[in-house]
Amino acid sequence: MASYASAKNGAKTLLIEKSQEIGEPVRCAEAIPSIEEFGLKPEPEFVRNIIKGGILFSPSGKKVTVTQDKAQGYIVERKIFDKYLAIRAAKVGSKVAVKTTAIDLERDGNYWNVIVEFLGEEYAIKTKVVIAADGVESNIAEYAGLKAKKKPLEICSCAEYEMTNVELLDKNMMEFYFGNEVAPGGYVWIFPKGETANVGLGVRDKKKKAIDYLEEFIENGLAKDRLKDATPIEFKVGGAPVSGPIEKTYTDGLLVVGDAAGQISPLTGGGIYLAMDCGLIAGEVASKAIKANDWSEETLKEYERRWKEKHYEYLMNHLKYRKILEKMSDDELDALAEALGDSLEGIDLKKFVKRIITKKPSLLKYFKDLL
């Protein structure tokens, strides 16, 4: 989205992709709440399923069904979706370099030299503005002097199988499983994807690997009877930074977006929509700065102002809720599910808090600061 916005607004743009194929490897569960506001249609070539809501399971199996009024989301084929977005950017003028890795960043007067490696050879690309969208392991922001590195337990370790022969509760509802035994510091998901389903989890734990927790859930978890005939057709791993946004996302001639900037929900680990929207803002701000012949820190801070106006409160609230949930025992998570009831319409976390403390006063200690 950053390269699309930058090129569309007249800036000479180069999209650098370290993989030999855009969209590979896939490192996420492929759910996105909406794409229409980006001028995108839910094309059958990349949309695998329409999502109407979610079903939440407490450790004991208490079920809470959440629907989102008339809104809907999508499960996409990420490898196709990413390539679709790259083609869209190329059509408005962006150039694309694949199998090209940015390995360093050097100052050259008022410009940056981006040092890249392609087929064993190193090259320097001189540019006015760099948009660092290099993921959770971001080095580019660090090269520019920004603090972007995450501590191990600030990253949710994720493992996922795309599986066939999964028996779903509802083909248009995502499933979420919580508990300190099944997924400490995270949750298990089953996301319907047409003829297949993404079955995965994210954990923050030193005791076992994410894949070990996943295998245990498939064999012995609450959904074991519906997964007994399931078989994997693809395996994915990745990491989701869940400690909130980094302290600063801009400096002279550089902007940081997406996972690299911590623009991902600390509660759900969902980040596609946020990365797309913040990328769009970054591309607009970068192209505007180049047109004005001023890409100083003072000019580029518009990017942080704009994305924070839209998303900062949401991210910080999700960080609060995540920290609350991770303190709860399994019995308290069960009590939380009891308080929420069998079904909910819409996601209104403040309303949830009032309902929780009314029905389960014992949980007040966790939520009193949110009132």
Automatic annotation (TrEMBL):
UniProt-annotated binding residues for a 2,3-bis-O-(geranylgeranyl)-sn-glycerol 1-phospholipid: L349
Pathway of action: Membrane lipid metabolism; glycerophospholipid metabolism
Cofactor: FAD
Record-listed FAD binding positions: A2, E17, C28, A29, A31, R78, A102, D259, G271, I272
Top-level taxon of the source organism: Archaea
Cofactor binding, per record: Binds 1 FAD per subunit.
GO biological process, one term: membrane lipid biosynthetic process
Gene Ontology terms for molecular function: flavin adenine dinucleotide binding; geranylgeranyl reductase activity; oxidoreductase activity, acting on the CH-CH group of donors, NAD or NADP as acceptor
Reactions catalysed: 2,3-bis-O-(phytanyl)-sn-glycerol 1-phosphate + 8 A = 2,3-bis-O-(geranylgeranyl)-sn-glycerol 1-phosphate + 8 AH2; CDP-2,3-bis-O-(geranylgeranyl)-sn-glycerol + 8 AH2 = CDP-2,3-bis-O-(phytanyl)-sn-glycerol + 8 A; a 2,3-bis-O-phytanyl-sn-glycerol 1-phospholipid + 8 A = a 2,3-bis-O-(geranylgeranyl)-sn-glycerol 1-phospholipid + 8 AH2; archaetidylserine + 8 AH2 = 2,3-bis-O-phytanyl-sn-glycero-3-phospho-L-serine + 8 A
Residue ranges of every copy of the Digeranylgeranylglycerophospholipid reductase catalytic domain listed in the record: 155-238
Entries under HAMAP family matching the protein: DGGGPL_reductase
Record function comment: Is involved in the reduction of 2,3-digeranylgeranylglycerophospholipids (unsaturated archaeols) into 2,3-diphytanylglycerophospholipids (saturated archaeols) in the biosynthesis of archaeal membrane lipids. Catalyzes the formation of archaetidic acid (2,3-di-O-phytanyl-sn-glyceryl phosphate) from 2,3-di-O-geranylgeranylglyceryl phosphate (DGGGP) via the hydrogenation of each double bond of the isoprenoid chains.
Protein name: Digeranylgeranylglycerophospholipid reductase
